[in-house]
Amino acid sequence: MLGKEMVKRELTRLDVEVENYSELFEIMAKIFVDLGYACDEYLERLHIREASFPTALPVEPYPIAIPHTGAKAILKPFIAPVRLKKAVKWNQMSDVEKTTDVRMAFFLGFKDPEEFVDLLQVLMFNFERTDWVRSLFESNSEDEFYQLASDMIWDVDERIDLCCK
After folding, report:
1. Predicted local distance difference test score (pLDDT) of residue 94
2. What is the distance between the alpha carbons of residues 85 and 118, in angstroms, rounded to a whole number?
């Protein structure tokens, strides 16, 4: 199940106001647990995972985080796109000593670890599409934000065609 059906409208959030990513984790974990997407240990596992393996991707010009846990914390697969009202400091995936200002996160909930690699490839391709990412930042409603997020390019052949032009 790797496609736009993973992006969940009921988990999409726009202009969330937090002071740090830990606050964001608390808000989103409650939503995931309450709606049956994650188990009660999700928040704890998310913090442990983030402390060991930070998830901010310093993609230019808009860094994006992809917080996630192991598959055991997930009850139903999901992608939850979240845009923050203002940027928060987040440790980089590529250099844990560096932080970057993040205003967008795609929370990932996956049950099949093999799917995770494919999902990362899809996300990385799309995160480098500056026009697409800019449209996410410019969206005016949660519905528009959700639609744009779910309309990312999923198909490997389409990604290859765009890369080779």
Report:
1. 87
2. 30
